[in-house]
Design brief:
Order of helices and strands: HEEEEEEEEEEEHEHEHHHEHEE
Strand content: 15-25%
Number of helices: 7
CATH architecture of the largest domain: Sandwich
CATH class of the largest domain: Mainly Beta
Number of domains: 3
Number of strands: 16
Shape: flat
Radius of gyration: 27 Å
């Protein structure tokens, strides 16, 4: 390898590695309230304790401070405890409008007896601005929350490239539309975004096909330059370009095949190898084991009550599994049922 190339690579990588991942920590324990003064609006019961800052919300409210982040913030990590399941929000002031307002990012907190760590990605939000003059958290009425600390994470370029490469090979979970459609490679640049990217449709982040398009554009322009400026035979330049196309095609085929194979491996691990009562069937989870256990009781009377997530799929499955005994969801026949099954929903 030529010395100039080695020196060039070294000079390129050195400043990137020097800009290491950084974490800004706001630790609320021991009576601290970093980074400084907080402004509380709405709820009034906010106190500092050894374990952190306690918020008891007698009504909807929020607390904000002026962070003055020096680097771009990619993610927030909260160490927090709540007495009940709830939805809170991160909020920050919008600096591009004349009237003072806040952008909000909802997140879910589950009831816990000890502080839990909640990872929240900000890098995929187009409305997020690390230079927002105010940042804070909003809590709904009736909540009791203990905040131990907030951590603000910035990833360096090398880490982003590494996590971007990993995200291209992260597979979606099985969905019914997979028989006709796959999202394909997807691109995110930190581990929190990568973990969450398939939680919704379309996935969070950007299509990984942009990487393919950029590679094709680079080699296509290079082939054209070799033909025009260096008088390279058209056939030779075309073969070089088509070789790149073929290699990318093979890589994409390998990835698609690996994703389909991952569905089978998941089924083998979570369903075939599990004992009865522990099996999970893709997005139906433990429905089949639950139904199998309940059917003898449900079919011992003329009809039974059933409630499940969604509108038809679970109800239709129960009609098939318990035929000729039919389930009911509502109506006058509901009063005549003795037994019932509620699956995958909080209704009770």
């Amino acid at each position: 390898m030529p010395r100039r190339l080695i020196i060039g690579i070294f000079l390129t990588i050195l400043p990137l590695t020097a800009s290491a991942k950084s974490v800004i920590e706001w630790d609320f324990r021991n009576g601290q309230t970093p980074p400084g003064k907080w402004e509380v609006r709405g709820f009034s019961n906010v106190k500092s304790y050894q374990e952190g800052i306690m918020i008891i919300a007698d009504k909807d409210g929020y607390m904000t401070t002026k962070p003055e982040f020096k680097k771009k913030i990619d993610a927030v990590i909260l160490t927090i405890q709540t007495a009940r399941d709830m939805e809170a929000v991160l909020l920050w002031q919008e600096i591009n409008i004349a009237v003072k307002g806040y952008n909000q990012l909802p997140f879910v907190l589950e009831k816990s007896d000890a502080p839990q760590v909640v990872d929240i990605d900000l890098s995929t939000l187009s409305i997020w601005n690390s230079r927002a003059p105010e940042f804070g958290i909003g809590i709904p009425k009736g909540a009791q929350v203990l905040i131990e600390k907030m951590e603000f994470v910035s990833y360096n370029p090398i880490e982003k490239i590494f996590h971007g490469a990993l995200s291209l090979w992260k597979f979606d979970v099985y969905a019914p539309q997979a028989i006709n459609f796959l999202w394909g490679p997807w691109l995110n640049f930190n581990p929190i975004a990568r973990a969450d990217m398939y939680l919704m449709d379309p996935p969070l982040g950007n299509s990984g096909m942009w990487v393919v398009y950029i590679i094709l554009a680079i080699f296509g322009l290079r082939a054209g330059k070799n033909i025009v400026k260096h008088n390279q035979p058209q056939a030779k330049a075309l073969v070089a370009f088509l070789t790149v196309v073929g290699c990318l095609w093979i890589v994409l085929d390998l990835r698609m095949g690996s994703e389909i194979l991952s569905y089978a491996l998941t089924d083998w691990r979570d369903h075939v190898l599990k004992n009865p009562g522990e099996r999970n069937a893709r997005k139906h989870r433990s429905f089949h084991d639950t139904a199998e256990d309940a059917i003898p009781t449900l079919t011992s009377s003329g009809s039974y009550f059933f409630k499940g997530p969604g509108k038809t799929i679970y109800f239709s499955a129960m009609r098939y599994l318990t035929y000729p005994v039919k389930p009911v969801q509502s109506g006058p026949n509901l009063e005549n049922t003795t037994y019932g099954l509620i699956f995958g929903t909080n209704d009770a």
